[in-house]
């Protein structure tokens, strides 16, 4: 991990420090269907700014529902739905959102706020907002938030460190992914020194699911298809929120499926096509290294990182997978 370029971090710190010192209103949001990095970033920065004197409102785009794996994060109870945030705050902070579209109905605040600050680490981020701290080399957005908290001279306690550690562990696959660097471990060490219970955090994030999860896994892994000739090899399967419910699970339980499928050694790309209640599909892709799935996702209307990316499809399942196949094949030909 390289450090964030000094100038962009300094600009963001200045805006936030001034907002805090003057008791300004600050709205913070993560991306739609927030994950641990988005929520950890929002909650840690919101709490830091609150302690420094800002009038803080932490939110995320609808649906306003948190998965059980994240609802325990300290400060989560203080999150408010997007309908309850001031429409024109002094400052709007976007965290872990790779594009305005990922902010859903909150994207308008980028323009209506006095200043909009965009904190992100997606390679596909086109650059938006009036002050940008976008560092694709950062393994997680919480890494950038940690730097901002230091800049704001907010002391890290277990509440803040729990939020930061959750995002860091999630986006690095518990320090297994290629985005993990010496600085990532140094940050983790600093977080652990605050006294957080990292084992309990990881267990809640990654290793806790109702028994019905095993039933869902068997269905979804049982119908996985291996297509070794597509690109550098594709393994894919599908699932739906309705099916999750039949197994007694909330729809967000589909998110963890791709982490099982991506172990397939014969396929460089793993994909889970997740059927939503409205009939659309949300596609999650992971690469074992040879394929830039962010490029594939961008071509199909989404975004992400080289090794983890996604997009939405409004076609039927067959057409959705056919388009994915041809995009992966085109990637090999280029
Ligand atoms: P997921 O498969 O949902 O865990 O997402 C993997 C990565 O791709 C995350 O970094 C997401 O932020 C990003 N991503 C997923 N869906 C989209 C989308 N529709 N547009 C932009 N980025 C996305
Ligand atoms: Mn995220
Ligand atoms: Mn992230």
Order of helices and strands: HEHEEHEEHHHHHEEHHEEHEEH
Structural class determined from secondary elements: alpha/beta
On the 0 to 100 scale, the average pLDDT is 96
| Count of discrete domains | 2
Q: What shape does the CA trace take?
A: globular
Here the CATH topology of the largest domain equals inorganic pyrophosphatase (n-terminal core)
User: In DSSP terms, counting alpha (H) and pi (I) runs of 4 or more, how many helices?
Assistant: 12
Q: Give the strand order of the largest sheet, numbering strands 1, 2, ... along the chain.
A: 6-7-8-9-11-10
Q: Could you describe the largest sheet, including whether it forms a barrel? A: 6 strands, mixed
- Write down the CATH class of the largest domain: Alpha Beta
Radius of gyration: 19 Å
In the predicted model, the low-confidence regions spanning at least 5 consecutive residues are 1-5
Distance between the termini: 29 Å
Give the percentage of residues in beta strands: 15-25%
Tally of extended strands?
A: 11
CATH homology-level superfamily of the largest domain: inorganic pyrophosphatase (n-terminal core)
Would you identify the CATH architecture of the largest domain? Alpha-Beta Complex
The hetero molecules present are:
adenosine monophosphate, manganese (II) ion
> Roughly how much helix do the residues carry, as a percent range?
25-40%
């Amino acid at each position: 991990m390289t450090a964030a370029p000094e100038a962009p971090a300094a600009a963001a710190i200045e805006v936030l420090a001034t907002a805090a010192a003057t008791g300004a209103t600050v709205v913070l949001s993560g991306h739609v269907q927030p994950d641990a990095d988005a929520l950890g970033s929002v909650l840690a920065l919101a709490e830091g700014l609150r302690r420094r004197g800002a009038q803080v409102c932490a939110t995320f785009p609808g649906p306003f529902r948190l998965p059980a794996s994240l609802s325990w994060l300290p400060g989560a109870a203080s999150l408010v739905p997007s309908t309850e945030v001031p429409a024109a705050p002094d400052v709007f902070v976007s965290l872990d959102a790779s594009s305005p579209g990922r902010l859903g109905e909150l994207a308008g605040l980028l323009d209506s706020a006095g200043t909009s600050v965009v904190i992100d680490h997606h390679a596909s981020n086109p650059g938006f907002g009036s002050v940008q701290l976008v560092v694709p080399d950062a393994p997680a957005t919480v890494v950038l938030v940690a730097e901002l908290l230091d800049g704001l001279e907010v002391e890290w306690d277990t509440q803040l460190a729990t939020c930061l550690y959750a995002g860091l562990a999630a986006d690095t696959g518990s320090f297994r992914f290629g985005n993990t660097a010496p600085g990532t471990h140094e940050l983790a060490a600093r977080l652990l020194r605050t006294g957080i219970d990292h084992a309990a955090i990881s267990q809640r994030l990654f290793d806790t699911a109702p028994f019905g999860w095993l039933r869902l896994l068997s269905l979804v892994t049982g119908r996985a298809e291996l297509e070794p000739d597509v690109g550098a090899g594709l393994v894919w399967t599908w699932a739906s929120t309705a099916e999750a419910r039949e197994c007694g699970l909330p729809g967000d339980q589909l998110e963890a499926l791709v982490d099982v499928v991506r172990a397939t050694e014969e396929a460089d790309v793993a994909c889970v096509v997740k059927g939503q209640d409205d009939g659309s599909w949300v596609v999650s892709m992971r690469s074992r290294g040879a394929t830039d799935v962010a490029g594939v996702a961008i071509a199909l209307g989404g975004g992400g990182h080289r090794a983890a990316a996604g997009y939405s499809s409004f076609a039927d399942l067959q057409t959705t997978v056919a388009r994915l196949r041809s995009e992966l094949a085109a990637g090999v030909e280029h």
